[in-house]
Amino acid sequence: MTIGKTHDDSAMIDRTSRWAIATIALATAAGTGLRFVGLSAHEFWYDESCTYLYVRDLFDWPAGWANLLRESTNLPYYVLLRGWATIFGHSEAAYRAFSALAAALTVPLLGAAAARLAGRRGGVIAAVLAAAHPLHVYYAHEARAYALWVLLLTGAAWALIRAVQRMTARSWSLYGVLLLAALPTHYFSLYWAPATLAAVTLAQDRRRAVRFWAVTHVVVGLCFLPYFFAAVLPAGLGGGNRWLVEAWEPLAAIPNTLWAMLPAGRYPPHLTGLSASGSDAATSWPELAALAGAGALILVAAGRCARALTAVGAARDATRERRRSVARGTAAAAGGAG
User: What is the DSSP code string of 270-330?
Assistant: First the structure.
């Protein structure tokens, strides 16, 4: 008797794969449309005007680079956008189209990362949610670095999952390159390391994964240090990052962010048209429905995580038991030979 997948099983897997790929492609197409519509609907606002000036003066040495380093972040974005503007021009639509493209590419990439982590269904759900996410669409319409930053971090997440699964130097190097690109794009990437360490500790070969993780992050950190001392630290000492202190409310930041992520969440006032109700209004039925849906999704995700952790623990125990069995067998064989 042959043990393995039957023809029907293989056909079912192929059909599921095609369905997942088609759904992610459809979500990507819809998300691309949402991100490219209305790019020239309004003029640059203040921060976008800064982007225009930085890109225009990028090769004006040394004044242009002095101004650029004073902002302390986004340098890869400005360099790439300068090349983009050389081809497509310096209009509002041209500048924002670069962000729209980065945001559109994030949708299938997030689907691929989620599929590696949670299977095809997880990849489809992640891609659909990303395609329709209002804040992601909003920042796709802004000539700022946020869309590119999210793309790079999404790529880093995909590469990290792949590296933990393959456990090769080449796969970890790809993760390191993407993380190194994300750091100067926005220094909030520094918060990435603790979260990834928590994820790596769940790997089946935990010790090896942690060693790879540590070496990769040390190398990335050493490569980032010159930029940190040249741009991030001087800008902080000069008050360039004062907005961060003023806007940061430690006790409220996380719940407010989660609240804004809801389909009917209370978005910041300047995001006109996204909020289902005013900040002082009573909770609406769409908000209640969104809260209920989010709660259900959290419960489902928690259950899946619990099952995944149980499976990881069982696999780890089975691996240890096999190693002990092999060691006992080897010792017995050596004793018999003696």
Answer: TSTTT-SS-TTSPPPHHHHHHHHHHHHHHHHHHHHHHHHHHHHHHHHHHHHHHHHHHHHHH
Residue 70: the pLDDT is 64
Any residues with CB less than 8 A from the CB of 6 and at least 6 apart, and which?
A: none
Q: Count CB atoms within 10 A of the CB of residue 33.
A: 11
For residue 284, the 8-state DSSP code is P
Integer CA distances (angstroms), 240 to 68, 232, 322, in order? 12, 9, 57
What is the rounded CA–CA span in Å between residue 85 and residue 55? 9
Amino acid symbol at 166? R
pLDDT tens digits along 175-213: 999 999 999 898 788 888 888 887 787 777 888 899 999
Judge if pTM exceeds 0.85: no
Q: At residue 264, does pLDDT exceed 90?
A: no
Percent of the chain with pLDDT over 70: 64
Question: Can you give the three-state secondary structure of 107-119, one letter per residue?
Answer: HHHHHHHHHHHHH
CB atoms within 10 A of CB 9: 10
Q: Which two tokens stand for residue 332?
A: 């017995």
The answer to whether residues 100 and 28 touch, using CB atoms and an 8 Å cutoff, is: no
Provide the sign of the torsion angle of the four alpha carbons 165, 168, 171, 177, taken in this order.
positive
Taking a C-beta distance cutoff of 8 angstroms, is the pair 159, 175 a contact?
yes
**Residue 186 · residue 144 · CB < 8 Å:** no
The answer on pLDDT for 244 being more than 90 is no
pLDDT category at 336 given cuts 50, 70, 90 is: low
CA nearest to 107, candidates 142, 139, 136, 83: 136
